[in-house]
Design goal:
This protein is mostly helical. The chain has a single domain, classed as MetI-like fold (Orthogonal Bundle), CATH 1.10.3720.10. 74% of the residues lie in helices and 3% in strands. It has 13 helices and two strands; from the N terminus they run αααααααααααββαα. The protein has a two-stranded antiparallel ribbon with strand order 1-2. Strand 1 and strand 2 form a beta hairpin. Helix 12 packs antiparallel against helix 13. The protein is globular, with a radius of gyration of 24 Å. The protein starts with a helix and ends with a helix.
Length: 306
């Protein structure tokens, strides 16, 4: 056996377990799910083994459902705002912990730690903060007495509840994104920084002309990660708001903070419309794939411009 054949054999021996797992966990469920999206699959259909092909009926019903349309719109809005806030906060934190700051490694660990907390636990912690801690603070400090009014609870209205989800998402995820920016900033040649200082460049000029352009690749990665993470948000949505409070759309009451992932879950396991939920998941996949590809291509072009 030649050395090239030995290398190829070793390559496939190490790749095969991962490849088999990927096919079993990702590829096969995706193919089966795509098939079930065109059937009348429900829990009773599974038990009775009676499946009937219904074409695009599940897709049409999903697109006619006000709750699904609202979930798509609110998820898109949440994703845009979450991406902006997380990346701004993470980049500012990265600038702080890469500067002349004492104990900056301690701060890096502190900012990263919230990312290690599970989303379900995190949601319940912040639910307690919004519903109990902040009103108690308002009752103690007169300047914040408006917080003690039940009508002003952040989770009591859809708009403020979405803002609360963004706050929680930023607190959890900004530290992780910060580490990517830290790696990019520390890879900037110090000769450029020193040369710009000798030329009299202000910190703002150095940031705009050196730091941001040389971190362009990091922006592509972080925006992709925050985009996908925001679109797929589920655990914090469940534990923090459970989709509430309710609102009205097209004359029907719907959940005001029910993001797409939670809407798909509720359609499948609360309404027992498994095939329709699978159709929504398929639409979700297509939309996320298209938006992700567009975002990466746009950022790649920006990298060249910068």
């Amino acid at each position: 056996m030649t050395k090239k054949m030995e290398s190829a054999l070793v390559f496939w021996v190490f790749l095969l377990p991962v490849l088999v797992a990927f096919i079993m966990v990702m590829v096969i469920p995706f193919i089966l799910g795509s098939y079930y999206a065109f059937t009348n699959w429900t829990s009773s259909a599974r038990v009775d083994s009676v499946l009937r092909f219904v074409g695009f009926e599940n897709f049409i019903n999903s697109l006619k459902d006000p709750s699904f349309l609202y979930s798509f719109g609110i998820t898109f809005l949440y994703t845009i705002l979450n991406m902006i806030v997380i990346n701004i906060v993470a980049f500012v934190l990265a600038l702080l912990v890469t500067g002349d700051l004492k104990f900056k490694n301690v701060y890096r660990v502190g900012f990263f730690l919230p990312n290690l907390i599970g989303g379900i636990i995190l949601g319940y912690i912040w639910q307690f903060i919004f519903n109990n801690a902040l009103p108690s603070l308002g009752s103690i400090i007169s300047a914040f007495d408006f917080l003690s009014d039940p009508a002003n609870l952040m989770l009591s209205k859809p708009n403020t509840a979405i803002a609360a989800m963004i706050i929680v998402g930023t607190w959890q995820y900004a530290g992780y994104i910060m580490m990517i920016y830290v790696a990019a900033i520390e890879n900037i040649p110090q000769e450029l920084i020193e040369a710009s200082r000798m030329d009299g460049a202000t910190p703002w000029i150095r940031l705009k002309s050196i730091t941001i352009p040389l971190c362009a690749q990091a922006f592509t990665v972080t925006m992709f990660l925050t985009l996908v993470n925001s679109f797929k948000q589920f655990d914090v949505n469940v534990s923090l708001t459970s989709g509430g409070p309710s609102t009205m759309l097209m004359g029907q009451p719907i959940f005001g903070t029910e993001l797409l992932a939670l809407n798909i879950y509720n359609t499948a396991f609360i309404s027992n419309k498994l095939s329709e939920a699978q159709a929504r998941a398929f639409i979700f996949f297509l939309i996320l794939a298209i938006i992700s590809i567009i975002q990466v291509n746009v950022n790649k072009k920006k990298e060249i411009e910068l």
